[in-house]
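Appendix C reproduces, verbatim, an entry submitted by the partner laboratory led by Prof. M.T., so that reviewers can inspect both the input and the predicted structure.
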Amino acid sequence: MLLHIFLLLNVLVPSTCQGIGTPIRLADGTGTYGRVEVYYNSEWGTVCDDGWDLNDANVVCRQLGFESALESKTNAFYGPGTGPILLDNVGCVGDETSLSQCSHPGFEVHNCGHGEDAGVVCNGKCTPIRLADGAENYGRVEVFYNGQWGTVCDDGWDLNDANVVCRQMGFESALESKSSAFYGPGTGLILLDDVGCVGSEILLSQCSHPGFEVHNCGHGEDAGVVCNSTSIRLVDGAENYGRVEVYYNGQWGTVCDDGWDLNDANVVCRQMGFESALESKSSAFYGPGTGLILLDDVGCVGSEILLSQCSHPGFEVHNCGHGEDAGVVCNSKCTPIRLADGAENYGRVEVFYNGQWGTVCDDGWDLNDANVVCRQMGFESALESKSSAFYGPGTGLILLDDVGCVGSEILLSQCSHPGFEVHNCGHGEDAGVVCNSTSIRLVDGAENYGRVEVYYNGQWGTVCDDGWDLNDANVVCRQMGFESALESTSSAFYGPGTGLILLDDVGCVGSETLLSQCSHPGFEVHNCGHGEDAGVVCNSIGTPIRLADGTGNYGRVEVYYNSEWGTVCDDGWDLNDSNVVCRQLGFESALESKSSAFYGPGTGPILLDNVGCVGDETSLSQCSHPGFEVHNCGHGEDAGVVCNGDQGNAGTIEAIRLADGADNYGRVEVLYNGQWGTVCDDLWDLNDANVVCRQLGFESASEGNGNALYGEGLGPILLDDVVCTGGEDSLDQCGHDGYENHNCGHHEDAGVVCNSDSDQGNPETIAAIRLAGGLDNYGRVEIFYNGQWGTVCDDGWDLNDANVVCRQLGFEAALESKTSAFYGPGTGSILLDDVYCIGNETSLDQCRHPGLENHDCGHSEDAGVVCNSDANEGNAETIDSIRLAGGAANHGRVEILYNGQWGTVCDDGWDLDDANVVCRQLGFESAVESENNAFHGPGTGLILLDDVDCIGNETSLDQCKHPGLENHNCGHSEDAGVVCNRDANEGNAETIDSIRLAGGAETYGRVEILYNGQWGTVCDDAWDLSDANVVCRQLGFVSAAESKTSAFYGSGMGLIMLDDVDCIGNETSLDQCRHPGFEYHDCGHSEDAGVVCNNRIDESDYSSGGIDRSTYSPPVGDVTIRCDAWSFQVDIPMELVQGIDADRFFLSGNLRDSSCRGFENGNSISINSSLDDCGTRYTSSHNLSFYQNTIRGSDPEAAGIVEYFSIGLPITCVYNRSKVIKTFFGTLGDSTTVLKDSSAFLYNLAVYPSVAYTQRVESYPISVVMGAKPFFRAELLKAPGNLEIHLRSCRATTTADYDNDIVYEFIRDGCGVNEDVVRVLTPERLTQADFELKIFRLPQDLADVTRQVWIHCEVLSCDIDDTSSECRRGCVVGRPTRSIVESAQKADWILAGPIILVGDSKERGDKFQEDTFYTVLLSTTSVLMIVLAVLGSSFIVVMRCLGQRGNPEDHGEGALSLEQLDQSSFDNSSNNYEELPMEHLDQPGQCSYDDVSLK
């Protein structure tokens, strides 16, 4: 039995978002989430997650200007920070305004590491915003501030600002920003001007602006936006079919299939640019989605433009699960389009219509039209529109003319046009386009490196790193205009992307011009996650360039690309382009640009065309152009330049030398303009080295090397990007970027090794070599020379060097090179440094090095090796067994049994080959994935293997290469894991004979299955709602309401049949779910799984291939609500929620706070909270005030809220003028009942002897000398935090009757009537009202020995946000006199008091002796229940501070004289007794109170 309860939610959103307090920021996330960092002592630092919870997160989010936090994050969820850890053990109550106000042991006091850095997810909702005088997705921008809507001025208004507005309103982005009151001038306030958004802000109020209501404009400049309303997509299908998902409030979510039909599908398909829908799909036909369910019960007529325009109960209002996600099949017969007589990204536009291809006329043809064409063909945008049959006249039909695209259309056929085959033109006007083929970008890096993302079908997505190598990276870099790639990166080196993964298994030859031309299995076909996103590092140096067939400063421009020199076409060639060329060559500027092959036609490829330089670029490749080798010209149009030769390459190299090596090898240095300088190694190869060596007199070069092999030079870097053919006589004849034009450092200095018959080489030989500080096959490298052993320094030490050492020692090869004295520092001599082996040497002394005993290092850099050998005894040891831990049967952490102990395997070098061996050894067909970084949790105990290197065909892991069992350099945080392909797992071939529920009733109980003639239970490991759904559907129920664990329905007996069951949720039988096999488990009957199923499926519910939901009518029962002054309690009868635990119910404001959850209370489940806790919200109308919340239910197995409840129960506490509390609620039946309840806020009246209000009087009665001036404080004790109070009036009477015959009113309308008697003070807090009162006596019956005085005060309680309330106005002099006792009806007051006058009167009558002292005994209660009424939009509370004798338990007994306390503020002129003037006395019988209180 299920329940869905709502407390009515009616929220006033704050008008602005502003961060306050200690500087704080969110790192490595977005505007609303990330790692928490605080600024202290001039440094940013992190916060440790010890004790980190939602209270702490709420403080952070509110400090940053958000409404609240959605979640607190621990364990460096957003990545570990760097630098200091500034806070730890933070303990916030939740109402602090700054994180630094929360309790903590002090800044920089912690016992944690960055692996525990805390994070938050904030609720980004804030300043309300709307679009006026337009439609859902466009209109005039208006914001809500300080209770009023107002407009935004268009000064500086642009697309960045519009994007922020549209995203804040739930759209994906903006299409256009509008100005000059495009949607008509607004009225009222202008709230914002000079808005300057970067574009990444979450809220418009977060953008820079001079302040609200600060502007210098009128409504004629009101700003507007056009938002991208096509916030809809199809998922897990193809371009024209799939699961429908919509974008709302910054998140994608699914649509439920209740009532889903072809009308709804037609709207979706047309919104996405298709002609119509072929079919509507239900029951998660394309698989269940995840995350939010945004729409349900959609009812489209079919003519709507947007799905959101169709009828529906509201976003996120639904009663379904992802098993009912809706889908569509759209008619993909959109008009096909192609580019002819050009290339992949440019050509004549041709469309296909009515079985024939035809052209498009160029009348009105512009870039908007071209953009639509290019996007329809899969490009990001158009570079240019072409007319006048630029790509040659077509033949056949002319199908379109006068095309007018806005630019946002999906298809060309959606643009305005007079109709197909309607035209007034010929083929001489055929239209064309040039599309931007660079639909590729690098993200989270810089201009030349980052994560690779490609643009496809309107969306950006990442590329998986399977098979990713330098060939692939070269294609990416050249496509982006770089010359080549320096490196390919994998494993999300630049961070994991989000959204789609578009390409996987890319295999480029390297000569392709576009990444999409490389082999791949298809877009969106992959078997990887974002942890494998590929990246590149491109060579960012400008494309090499030279001048041909001229002299040093003029000639035909030729550029070097893809290992070839080629020419540049002269289309658009001008002096700006020439200036870039000349400066790139080292000249000051250009004198002239040349065209029409002025210096003769070149040969070979034409590499650039339509070059458009601004003029300040540093390389020609940085100028705009349609792409390398994209052109429509011949060599008769080759471009040339004349450069200003004053500073050019006319300067030649004066000399060349080799430094820090020997006669025939070393670092290349050239002498230019009187200075020696180095040469950068970008593009440096053997051709360049040959020129250097021949220039130095050697026959040739044997090697060209880089990376400052011979040490880093000093002084200027004179040459970079040197490109020699090899036949030049001098290095300055080779192509290069110009002298002193480079983008490198000395760590890239180039070197050479020249061939020479007189090569002096390294004549010294090593006598012997050994490994020390390790074992037979690994250790510190030591060599024997000149009678002593010594070490080798690790500068440049790599696997090539280690291979030479290992082979010299008799091993097959090296597994690893070790640095930084890995096997401990040696002693004695250091014999070698800067060793550089090719890898095929037979002895270490054959490798290049600066000479024996020549080094610049210490023993802390001693080099080491790990060798591999067939004779390695370590690998002779065999593994006894292997298993997967911390996961399930087919995935988990790899553990092996060796020498009687289980241990883990380190992930160094762990890949799919290794995983394949493990999976086959376990009986699976193959591996799906290898996993690193303790993906399945860190193991314990031994680490048995490291550096495992399998070919992939081994039958056991111990057959793979490794340095030996128990030989490792890692921790359990690097434990390796696998995911095995279980398709061949024989265990799942077995089927379940039957299934039943035991220990419960028909719809719930312990799950038992019949297998092989025996009944047995199912273990609860990983048991969740997906598993329960399969069980319930298999039993004939609609679905599962809940999964149960820990033998909830009692422990079963006999066999345990299944464990680690892992269902997707759409299986028809439990045996179709993943599991390790029947009778394979590691649990007991105390973990038996159970389910709670929803009602059975009725055969009559079947129609049109689907199942309609049956309606469930719950039994009638009442939910009761009680509200008092500061809290409320909801009681839900147990009979209505049978089988649902009490703590499954919670108040929506704080689902993690146990005090906000339900608890068992007799025969009910109760939930209670104060009016300002657990997310309870306050709103008000003209004469009503509301305190509201929502009761929800959660699934303990899920990460967030799961909507299980199917019945709505609205509840609210309303304060109005006739009753303090009125409670509305609905029963669970068809009728609605109204309960009325009464209560009040709690007040306290205290007496203080001093204006400091530090020590109040705690013992009663109190003796006060006549004329003394004690201080009174009325205080609102327990009530919601949104109230403030104000003393409206106070009076003294001679009896407890408020309407006594003698009344003296000493405060009226907030003002003291007689300043000699009373003084109204300013309190410390808004919930206090203070006054000073001089003790006096009233004329009364002197025959009574005991004289009594009662004090009554009317206190006004107002909404703290109401700036126009009477509380804010305070004392208003001259207000029309209004007697507080003019009323025809008395209120029902709770009285306390009196003040008792005690004295020995010597006279009886109407006159007192002036020298008589009178004592006032004042007794007050600490709390008074004050009836609440409403005046306008304020609460009006009349509080009678009536001095009733206090409770001895609260106050103690005995009298305390104020004379014994601080008398400094009292006027002790007791002989100056004052008889109060009679004009201040109200006469009896003239009035009463309640009319006033109810006005």
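The two ends are 48 Å apart (CA to CA). Additional entries are available on request from the coordinating office.
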